[in-house]
Amino acid sequence: AIMGHKVLPSSQASTGYSATDIVEYVKILLMSRGGDLGMMIMMLCGFAAYMTHIGANDMVVKLASKPLQYINSPYLLMIAAYFVACLMSLAVSSATGLG
């Protein structure tokens, strides 16, 4: 808009004023991308709620913490727990998936 270029895509009609064209462009972006992001977040939250409902979260904690019970030193336990968490992060890429 500052250098004389159109802000809106060619398929959209200009509002006639460059400042409102920028607002219109943001509205178009939110309408096109915001819905996809919202659906993805709802799907991930639903998956996390279902996994909690069937007890999968508790089972993962039990399985992941079982080898850590054999370590008596708190410092070694902290290091081992860090590596277990790193391995779990390969399967669960975000905190949203953890419930």
TrEMBL record:
The UniProt keywords, alphabetically, are: Cell membrane, Membrane, Transmembrane, Transmembrane helix, Transport
| Cellular compartment(s) | Cell membrane
The annotated topology with respect to the bilayer is: Multi-pass membrane protein
Report the leader peptide range. Answer: none
A GO molecular-function annotation:
C4-dicarboxylate transmembrane transporter activity
- Say where the protein is mainly found: membrane
Instruction: Report the protein name in the record.
Output: Anaerobic C4-dicarboxylate transporter DcuC
Q: Which organism is it from?
A: human gut metagenome
